[in-house]
Write a structure and sequence with these properties.
By secondary structure, this protein is an alpha+beta fold. It has one domain. About 50% of the residues lie in helices and about 20% in strands. It contains three helices and four strands, in the order αββββαα. Strands 1-2-3-4 form a four-stranded antiparallel beta sheet. A hairpin with a 2-residue loop joins strand 1 and strand 2. The chain is globular, with a radius of gyration of 16 Å.
Length: about 130
């Protein structure tokens, strides 16, 4: 069972073409995505059911490749599913005004990047 915040994150991610499904067990709250690969797992790990904090996690099964291969695969998957994290940021910080707003420059940069991502998608959709 989800809540309005998690439902909003899932809906926002879907706007960017990322389908996520909610999973909760033993105090862990995650939004999983289908990578289309059996050797990789990608999910947004939430700090709690209210989504007060989150991190995009990427795991690739060991298959004997060189470390550089794993790093490149992880980077590619992070880029492909970053819209899920951006959806979290846009929903979590929806009521946050432009800087100065009490957050540091790193958080403000993250908020600006996520908002710009969805604004660009919206502009592209209107231009089509």
């Amino acid at each position: 069972m989800t809540n309005p915040t998690i439902d909003a994150i899932i809906a926002k991610a879907a706007e960017a073409g990322v389908e996520a499904r909610y999973w909760e067990k033993g105090g862990k709250f995650r939004l999983y995505v289908d990578t289309g690969r059996r050797d990789a797992k990608v999910f947004l790990e939430l700090d709690d059911a209210e989504a007060s904090g989150a991190a995009l996690k990427v795991f690739i099964d060991d298959c004997g490749q060189a470390p550089a291969w794993y790093a490149s695969q992880k980077k590619a998957l992070q880029g492909r599913f970053m819209p899920l994290f951006f959806a979290y940021v846009v929903i979590r910080y929806a009521d946050t005004a432009a800087a100065p707003n009490g957050y540091g420059p790193d958080i403000n940069a993250m908020i600006d990047e996520a908002r710009a991502f969805f604004a660009a998608r919206s502009a592209n959709a209107e231009g089509e």
